[in-house]
Amino acid sequence: MGIDRLIKELDLTTYDPTQQSPKGVVSLGKHGRKMGWFGWTFTTVILVVLAGSLLFFSNLFYLDLTAFFDRDQQKTVAKEEKDKTDNNKEAKAKETVDKVEEVQDTVGQSHKEIGKFVSDMHDFYNETTGYGAINSLDWVEQTKQAEKVSVGIDEEVTSVKSDALRTDLEHIKQTADTVLSKKTTDSVRNLHRLFHDLDIALNDYNGYDKIWGVTETLKAVHN
């Protein structure tokens, strides 16, 4: 395409200050050139594209910033909630230890003989039902132990001064009788849990990361 034809296509002609600008042509100065409809349209399109791009990227950047700050805020809230939960757990654990020690210093100290009986029974059930052994019980062994539990409680219950402890021992005797009559796994499991909680209450047993809450003696501690 020749230069003359290009100028004609773009409607660009040498500016002559003595002549009036043709219709549809914008003057660009004394020594400039006139821009016809094609050049004006092209310029308008470029400006529209630039404005649209600026709007698009501004919105995108704003959204990215919003998402970033939202995530940061969520992390902060989650951390605060976790710290609060951890603090509550620590406070509750300390409160539990204090209550257990109080029970040990009162009920435990005045029932040492029963405490020894409970500790021996607890050791037996730890050995014969723990680590999955509950699923394959030796019923001859379990019934003999249930008989020993029942007889032992009959001998000890008359010396009990605590009403809560007396209730727990009677509950243990009833559960032992269930083992003898029905030979159910649940009754053996319940016996184990009863002795576990009473061992915590009466003795210096330090395995109270778990309190089953099945005894009256430790009812206040569990709640």
Keyphrases for this structure?
223 residues; mainly alpha; 0% strand; elongated
- Largest sheet report: none
Specify the number of helices.
Answer: 7
pLDDT below 50 for ≥5 consecutive residues: which ranges? 23-32
What is the β-strand count?
0
Provide the succession of SSEs: HHHHHHH
Q: Mind telling me the C-alpha Rg?
A: 45 Å
Mean pLDDT: 79
- Based on CA inertia axes, which overall geometry fits? elongated
Sheet-strand content, in percent, reads under 5%
Termini separation comes to 95 Å
- Indicate the structural class: mainly alpha
Helix content: over 70%
Description:
- The longest helix is centred in the first third of the chain and has 72 residues, at 37-108.
- The chain is mainly α and 223 residues long.
- It is built from seven helices and no strands.
- The termini are far apart.
- Helix 3 (112-129) runs antiparallel to helix 4 and helix 3 (112-129) crosses helix 6 (185-202).
- It has helices spanning 3-10, 37-108, 112-129, 139-156, 163-182, 185-202, 219-222.
Write the layout of secondary structure elements.
Elements (H helix, E strand, L loop, with lengths): L2 H8 L26 H72 L3 H18 L9 H18 L6 H20 L2 H18 L16 H4 L1
Helix pairs in contact: 3-4, 3-6, 4-5, 5-6
Short description:
With 223 residues, the chain is mainly α. It is 71% helix and 0% strand. The protein contains 7 helices and no strands.
